[in-house]
Batch of 2 targets.
Target 1
Amino acid sequence: MTRSQRLLWIISLACAGCGGPTLVSPERTLPFTVRVLPVKLTAGEGEADPAAAITPAREAFGDLNELASDLADALWSAQVFTDVVTNEEPEVPADLDLEIELRGADFGPSQKQILGSIFSTFVWLFAGHLSWFIDDRIHGESDVILNVVIRPSATSRGGSGAKAAAEDAPEELNVVQHALPLNDIETNFRERSRMTDWLIDTVVPPFLQSGDLATTGTSLARRSVDHFAVSEPDRLLLSVAGNHLKAVWSYVAYDDARGELVLVSQGPAREVKIHPEAGKPRRVDEEELRRRATQGAARDEIFRWLADRAPDIGDSPYNRYYRIPLERDEEGYLAIEATLPRGGVPGRFTIYRPPTAGAE
């Protein structure tokens, strides 16, 4: 789903009077446009024939570009980041690249889930096929692991577009690097059965049927996206801000109430560039940044304000805090670039300022 498609989707929900996610929660959403790169499949450790070992996973997960798109939509729906795109939207510049590696291919055998089995059997006795939609088996011995790495985008690092080799980025630039075991994923009878199993279901309760291996694998792959959507957002919200400050030495938050950017940098900032979606870009030079730097009570106020939005930032003595007022026509998607005198990779951010915010 492209950025324009997402905007149209939300507008249509609003026009229909339906509920749904707002486009962005400016003060809590992480201020980045993230590009989800195509998913990689790798065999687990100790596999004698890695290519053969990942075949079941390749068949289950299908098109890896579509999988990347599904994961991107899951992150965007959770409003973790200002925007989430894939390689299908090369025209949208990304601040961070998100790489996903699926390691291993065996979700393991399924076991009967006690409460789900009792419930599905009760429904099977009195309502027949409605029991097919009740989760009653669980895969608790999966060896499939979803590895997540987030780092400054290839273009930020001086690479030639999103295809620049990930190996070119030093590990210390990793903003996120963690593993999500795809364990304890549940399935229902509909997700693991073939047509021949439907006939058996007339005399055998659903929970007693483990189903077809290939069909179950495809369903588990789809469930993995839901597992990712539920498990990953909280971890990202609690770690990205502080890790970005450590790796790239800067972080930006948007104070919607005051219409200001809040810049945190490890050491004095040299320059900030603001690129509105429409309108002229603006450069905040080193002299103006010195005037915007906060001290004493104003600095403490920013630290307390950030504690609710980026609790992992901390209050290092090396941190500098700046308030940069936005101009009236700086609205919509704003690309921000922060540069420090000591060089390195510039901090790149994206915030969304509702068009009405700049109006008097």
Target 2
Amino acid sequence: MKRFCIKISCLALICGVIAAMFFALVYRVDPDGYFKNDADSNNPISLMTQYKNHPNPYILIGDSRMNSLRGHMDYFDQRAGEAYFNASFDGASVNEIVDLFWYCDAYAPLQKVYLGISFYNIQDNYMMYRIEKNVELIRNPWKYVFNYKTVLDAVQGARGNPANNEPPPADAPDFPQYADFVYTICAARNGYHVNQSNMLRLTEVAEYCKENRIELCFVTFPYHVSIYENVIKPLDIEGDISEYKAVLSRHARTMDTEFLSDFSMDDDHFTDGFHFANKNRFIDAILTGDDPMVRTLYSAE
């Protein structure tokens, strides 16, 4: 019995040492800014942790296109007249954008909100569920420390390879290749369909904002002509795109740049089929509506 107790004690000690080593590694590297709140990484946990520690009633939420404004937030704030928190991250789906809205609303009395929506991130074939999982990790430090991705990111960080590094930009945009990738996602399974659950959740957000006097604006993003020619036209989804924007505009102001325009035709305006280069022009367009690249849609009563 004594020998058994010694074995159990040794095992517990070893487990305790391993747990302490994991905790020390994650705490020292802190890949998501979970403990020190100083990470500048593109992932939802980092953004959610930063927002929890520094809530802001003025927010932007969207995918990589809204996130690309991060380096231009001084200009955005100057033009908007308020300091905004950019809670966007690459690859965000609409259901995650809505989850982030409710997460932010729980920490601050929201006043102005911009939600970035597109035909790509609102579809059935693009559903992600990272925010719900991350809420549990943020609430429980031990779950966070022993989460597989947290440990992996910490190890990469300790080796000098920070998590979420993006590949270096190509020498020149390959518009057809990017359009092929987008087409593959949109045409998967049963083809392209606007996700109706996403639409319902967005309208619920809009009604909540009306009831609580929160100024909500939906924002759509410009695409390169190659996306129209190689994705939208072959899939015959112009009607779907117009319909989802018409529904949103019945509930909140919608600044629409997601249409074929002179802006779409100019290769110099894009780094790939979705991501645009002239950020300040886009910011001015969605804030003022005074640009041919934007249409202000709003038919709410």
